[in-house]
From TrEMBL:
<feature type="transmembrane region" description="Helical">
    <location>
        <begin position="234"/>
        <end position="256"/>
    </location>
</feature>
<feature type="transmembrane region" description="Helical">
    <location>
        <begin position="103"/>
        <end position="129"/>
    </location>
</feature>
<feature type="transmembrane region" description="Helical">
    <location>
        <begin position="159"/>
        <end position="180"/>
    </location>
</feature>
<dbReference type="InterPro" id="IPR037272">
    <property type="entry name" value="SNS_sf"/>
</dbReference>
<dbReference type="Pfam" id="PF00209">
    <property type="entry name" value="SNF"/>
</dbReference>
<keyword id="KW-1133">Transmembrane helix</keyword>
<protein>
    <submittedName>
        <fullName>NSS family neurotransmitter:Na+ symporter</fullName>
    </submittedName>
</protein>
<feature type="transmembrane region" description="Helical">
    <location>
        <begin position="479"/>
        <end position="501"/>
    </location>
</feature>
<feature type="transmembrane region" description="Helical">
    <location>
        <begin position="21"/>
        <end position="40"/>
    </location>
</feature>
<feature type="transmembrane region" description="Helical">
    <location>
        <begin position="371"/>
        <end position="395"/>
    </location>
</feature>
<dbReference type="GO" id="GO:0016020">
    <property type="term" value="C:membrane"/>
</dbReference>
<keyword id="KW-0813">Transport</keyword>
<feature type="transmembrane region" description="Helical">
    <location>
        <begin position="52"/>
        <end position="74"/>
    </location>
</feature>
<feature type="transmembrane region" description="Helical">
    <location>
        <begin position="268"/>
        <end position="297"/>
    </location>
</feature>
<keyword id="KW-0472">Membrane</keyword>
<feature type="transmembrane region" description="Helical">
    <location>
        <begin position="443"/>
        <end position="467"/>
    </location>
</feature>
<dbReference type="InterPro" id="IPR000175">
    <property type="entry name" value="Na/ntran_symport"/>
</dbReference>
Amino acid sequence: MTASRPNSPVSPPRELFTGQVGFILAAIGSAVGLGNIWRFPGVAYENGGGAFLIPYIVALLTAGIPILLLDYAIGHRFRGSAPTALRRLGGARAGRLMEGLGWFQVAIAFVIGLYYTVVIAWALSYFVFSFDLRWGDDPAGFFVGDYLRVSDPGLSLDFVPGVLIPLAVVWIATIVVLGLGVAKGIQRANVIFLPLLLVGFLALVIRALFLDGAAEGLNALFTPDFAALANPDVWIAAYSQIFFSLSIAFGIMITYSSYRRRRSNLTAPALVVAFANSSFEILAGIGVFATLGFFAVQQGVAVGDLEGLTGVALSFITFPAIVSEMPGGPIFGALFFGSLVMAGFTSLLSVLQVVSAGFQEKLGVSPRGAAATIGGISAVLSVLLFSTTSGLIALDTVDHYVNNIGIVASAVLMTVLVIGVLRRGAELRGHLSAVSTFAVGRAWTILVGVLAPAVLAYMLVTRVVALVTGGYEGYPSEYLTIVGWGSLLFIVVAAVVLSAIPWRRSPDDLAPWPSPAQLPSTPEASTR
């Protein structure tokens, strides 16, 4: 790094992961989250079964891994959180604009953190409930009525103690880990929880495979419907699943890769992270549908006739009902909900580190100070918005709008601006090739700059049109305007306001390494 500007405080040394293994575990921990367990199996089943793996793999190779590499290249080359790295990438020409995009990503992560924490709190409660099967004979009624006490759409201040207490526990744990920093906090948490998650979930899957009816469930999931491949919506579903499950294009991997040493392999770890994430999704599909096959046999119906095959309903209604009927149910339930807690917690850390890192660099505060301040504010808002009787509907609404519009818009803007407008594709491709074990070809630029934004733009437009014309889940239009569209408005306003705040230290004093003159002129020039 060059000397700092006059009257600009010297930046402290940047935190770093201890090595490649620590980074890979943290990146996998971010990617493997709640959606791997409760979203992928249902999406695959509804979109061609075994045939869905074809568009899924195509999406992984043409969009997932290329955008993951884009995030890695930006963060590693420009050494900062999303606002810092994107500002440096934009340079004198478009630094302010790109910084605004970075803060847009930070604001998205902030909002996601508010409600993601609540789902982990639910899972923590259900981990305890598993031991005495507290949901009884009516898991749906228990979840919606006894546990969450769900009210009509609106904004309520009627707090639910059963949610509030575990939510406070999750926030305290999160603030402590973030305050310990990258190596001692985030990396160490992933080193502990990721192996536990893998062992626990493998035990769950193995148990599920020996249940009566497991084969029927697996046949329902993997029997291919090749006719579905002619449906464009199936391909969009595949790209959507890959995009959301890899934690790309909203600041997480930019931030994480900025904590790697200058001389660090980027391309090989990207493949490890991407395929580890997909492998866990397939493992989750096996476990979930083997269990659903057992439940279908017990109910005397086909797997396709079951309700609640994805999302919140699968995890907190269908699975408790299954646990109540199976031999050794309490242990199975504890493994399932324990896995949800661990998968969710490692992903939550990555989401909130995006926010923490942005404020650390903008305001010049320590990791501990940022964790305490940002975590404290987030915890209060999370409790006020999502631990009340209106929390479930608010969570469902905010999640749908932020994921389907906010994150997708962020990805479209980043790929178009970085590759199409600023023309930094060759530089970033050269950076990846210069520091990694294998080079990145020109096809990468085409995938990131043309194919990915085209697919994502189509997803964005279709979902905006659907929400404008059809609303969401039958909720009142006034409610959707305030909570759904209001969340997106908050993200945009936050990005504008945060961009206008002066920097405590100049973010522009950076000499990227390798220098432009040291980058290979073509990917093929790198023979490492």
